[in-house]
Amino acid sequence: GDAYRLAILPSASGGLVVQIAQTGRVLAMQGGVDDRLGDFNRATQAFRQPGSTIKPFVYATGLDSGMTPSTQIDNTRFCYYQGRSKGEKCIRGGRAGEFPMRYGLEQSQNIMTVQIGMQAGMANVVETIEALDISEDPDPYAATALGSEESTVMRMVAAYGALANHGRINEPTLIDY
To answer: Which tens digits make up the pLDDT trace of 135-155?
Structure first.
């Protein structure tokens, strides 16, 4: 039969998880290029910063705290003193002015996301992240709202499954019985 092989091994590797949101059943998982090159599974073992993929959970926390998709959020600039750093930190960017919350999510606006996290309470954002098992012991800092905490592909997929499953998280399952 036909056989294929990679002539040049890629220098980068990644992970992939496909899961049924309503049950948690994992249909497919890819953790690297070739298991003969190492047994490290990037889908379940590689802890990386999720970046903007965390934003829907910040927005969900905002909705839980009484905001609506039409709540007006300032997108001009956000300055704060937080953590152990010295001096004022400012986040700039985006279109200046106030915009509906839905615009911030649609356009992945950093300033609006931090504003929502701060208005909803970063302690509440941390509770959401912990409840969905996205990250362990996240800090209640503005950077957390922008994805600075570490997670795995498997954890993020399960958390997104909860969004699609009316907030109910299902433990990812690989074996039926």
So the answer is: 999 999 999 999 999 999 999
User: Which residues lie closer than 8 Å to 119 by C-beta, 6 or more apart?
Assistant: 62, 65, 67, 73
Give residue-wise pLDDT tens across range 19-49: 999 999 999 999 987 777 778 989 999 999 9
Residue with tokens 């190492």: 38
| CA–CA dist 165, 70 (Å, integer) | 23
Weakest-pLDDT range from 45-59, 70-84, 121-135: 70-84
Identity at 101, one-letter amino acid code: M
Under 8 Å between Cβ of 143 and 82:
no
Residue 163: pLDDT over 90? yes
Q: What is the pTM of this model?
A: 0.86
Query: CA 111, CA 95: separation in Å to the nearest integer?
Result: 10
What number of CA atoms fall less than 13 Å from residue 78's CA on the CB side?
22
| 3-state secondary structure at position 139 | coil
Torsion over CA: 71, 72, 75, 79 (sign): negative
Strands (DSSP E) found in the chain: 16-19, 26-30, 72-74, 77-80, 89-92, 98-100
